[in-house]
Structures
1.
Amino acid sequence: MENMDDKLEKVNFLGGYLASARSEDQILDMAIHITRDILGFDHAIIRLLEGDALLSKKYIGFPREAADIIIHLDEGISGEAARNGKSILVEDTTKDPRFIAGVENCRSELCVPIKYDEKTIGIFNVESEQAAFFSESDKRLLETLSSQMAAALAATRLREELAKTEKLSILGRMASSILHDIRNDIHHLNISSDLLSRKDVPPERVVKLAGLVKKSADNIYALIEDIFDFVKTGRATLVKKESLIAETLEPVAEQARELGGNRVEVKLFVEPGLAVSMDRRRFRRVMLNLARNGVEAMPDGGTLTITAKKADGVVKVKVSDTGVGIPKSNLAKIWEPLFTAGKKDGAGLGMAIVKQIVEDHGWSIGVESEEGKGTTFTVRMG
């Protein structure tokens, strides 16, 4: 059986880890797994307080339907612990009328409030199939762990609020640029719609005007989508599933061909059967941004090459152009919001969002460039 010194060492380790965690999910996941190693419980659940309801955020050993139960402050052991801000140790749940059964054969329960600045923000509930399994020492350990977790959660939320404030400030500074871009595209839409309504417009002119309408509408939509993605804070909620990379890259290559017209040759090479767990919509945003940038970097024409293959166990997707290249002094700046490298169009959010989406997936992105020869972006998916 593990002695108290070993348990305290793990508590200290958890505290150090939580101090560097960057998201709520990271904090809760590590907390519940390290605590299981320390206390040896059979089931556990962490619930955070939203209004007067305790909502499940992370759990082990509970069936989904039990974890999804919403517990209010006037219900059960968890509700009382959150309401009073005091830990509750139950040696025999069969004799406690407050007990709400979430799993079969639960005989003892320890519920500790998660408190920050004297305010309860949730509860950490652990259970065992043995009666009188948890001790007063276990209660003190779980209270310490919960305090560490509360401080880490508060720090993460503060970082997210500061990031949101900073992003809103950036959007305020770039409002004139955003409005200018939208005004230009609306102007194009108005002129095109007026011309299209005339009966004497030749067919080839109709095709050209229809293309301009579509491009202007796409520009407005992309700009609005960029703004919404940019102001989000924290790790995005991804809808991930195993997907064939070719199914995303083939439409991207087609759109790049439309953007480049006759002046840009677009090549696509994808290793057959290559699949990755991803949010396809967001991955498509990344690839479209990179492809669009590549086409725009070749005003006099050139070649855009998109490749995807697996090497050394890692899937790499590369987007290369033979365009003007990026000066070395600007390479580190391209990921910054508002940085446009002299481009006439765009609000300067594209590459900041690319990096954000890539990192939300747990991937990485790098860039290599040489002035006058071109640029290559590499997304490492793993």
2.
Amino acid sequence: MTDLPPLDQPNAYVVLGPDDQRGPYTLELLISEVVAGRLQDATPVWWPGIGDWTTFSANPAVAAEIQRRRSGAQAPTNAFAPQPQPGQPQAGQAPQAGADLQAATAGADVSSSGADAAAAPYDQASDLAPIEVEPTAADFEAVGRPVEGFRAGSAMGLDPMHGQNFADLIRRSRARAEAAAMVEQIDERFTESLLSATNTLGLSMTSHSDEGGMHDMQFEDSGGGSLSVSLTQITGHLVADPHGHVTLDITWSTSGYEGASSTDTGEHGEIVVTAGGPDAISTASVSLLLALEDYVSADHIVDTKALERDFAAVAAQLAHSLEGWDQADTD
């Protein structure tokens, strides 16, 4: 009998029907139930040490032990199920799929001591318990990419290792989901800070669209001036990049400017003024790069006060360049 696995260790599992996997039990108990006719020889079974699910008749050592017992002593008493009650399986029948596990194992010694030492088949209840995850740079990089779906096989053909692999997949999926939520929250904080800054300057938003990876917003003040803002949308790639930055393009437009156009080339940080004359629209615009590390901490907390400060400074400077708007008029 040296080829037999340990019969007294509760680490064997059986499948009694669709989505009806049970265990752990001792092989001693399960073999006794097969001999008694309450489990079929073709019942799927698994225990640590075999690569995939088998059946009692397909494993030579177990099949030989069952045959030895059938040709010897009288079959043991029922240890796998209680005395039948109305509506329950009768003696000689395997418990049907979906039957209550406690009723099916009444009187059986199914202590789980030592069962955790080896990989067990997939246990949905434990694998789906809350898991603490910490998104990595790779998770942020993957935000927005399509994720390949997981397709489980039937219980009969399920390798026990798939349970652990599925649990790992859940952890990775949750990490990606948490990273995506962080990215979305950071992006929201940037736009909220821009709205707060323009509000303090007496500007009201008239339109907002998100296309081509940009937030495009329009604002107006009570004096007829308008502000156009184009801000890069935050992505997982930007958050993962230690040198990630967003582009901020702002243009202030107003009438009544009597000055001349600027001679600046529009290089980084230069305000370009285009004069339209006293009765036409003149504009002042600037393009800047905002480093995420200046506003987003290592634990992904956004410094909204710093964003509001810088957004307000840019808008006010552009308006002042045209001398067509005075913040004091809004106080």
3.
Amino acid sequence: MSVDVPTLTMVSALTSASVALALAFSLRTDIAAIGASLRIWAAGIAIQAVGWMLAGMRGTISDAIGVVLGNTLVVLGFAECERALGAFGGRRARPLAYIPLVFVTLTSIVFTFVRPDRDQRMIATSLLFAFVLALASGAALRVKAEGSRRPRSQRLTAATLAVAGATLFCRAIWILFAGQSALITVIVVYVCAAVAPVVSSLGFALMCTDRLDRELAYLASMDPLTGVHNRRSLESIANREIKAAERHGHSLSLLVIDIDHFKHVNDEQGHEAGDAALRSLTQIVRACLREEDTISRFGGDEFVVLMPHADMASAMTGAERLRTAVEAGSQMTISAGIAEWTPGEGLFDVMRRADDALYRAKEAGRNRIEAGATSAARSVHAAESR
């Protein structure tokens, strides 16, 4: 069964154009890096589609358009996909992927009009196409992954671009040693004009979806103003730490921090000054506390610090160091209450005692640390042990 290559090329080009149109209108986001890279990728696929379409019309239109412009647009589309992956990974655009544009245009002109040689033209353009696709595959692999293993979406995108590039490279080698082959031409058109744009676009769309999922997870667990954990995230972490403390029998303390006279800052200096004070406090707390401590903004100007493997004495020492650092390094002071977890307590039981201690610190004049009362659970535990 014979395959009409121009028809296959046109169908493949229309498929790519449909993918570009779908990407342009279906995946919209306010996240700058994702939105910009999606637009560049969709444009690249659309440019490729036009290039392949012109290639499919060779023989019915002038070679200047069907060969020279068609080849140039295809390689430009590949380069735009490489740029999209770079933008997605937060990397600046590199001119390297666009240099082959000049060579593709020149070789297409030379081997079509100056010294007509179809084989030489196909070898040269195939190698240049393969080079740009290799750069694009590398750009996909260079996108920083969250864990030690790259997501499947990233591997799918990189592998698809690599296969397309390898196909074009093999085509150049085949023509160099065995001459033209209708079968090789069909394979190249099918892989590079039909399969690669669709599958790589699917992979890239999944990469964007993965990034969006991570962004949403971050927004759900972190405070956008200060960049620390929010209340929801603290509850999850605290429950995990309490279970670990129960299982291994280590200590666990909780510190509730409040900025003194914070309402006056907002009322007299404005909310921007209040936001700056919250961010400043966060930076000082991060600098003073241990790596294993968890800081969260519980609401307003109230912060909660979870301190694993810290008894009351250790937590008091750390809290006093923090209070001194805030007083010395900013124009504000803090008050704080500390409570040490006891077996049988939940997060809010400990927080209740820490809140009571914070209230006493404020009543005693602010800019001080108070220790929470011993819990009823601890008193019972102590009595039973006697």
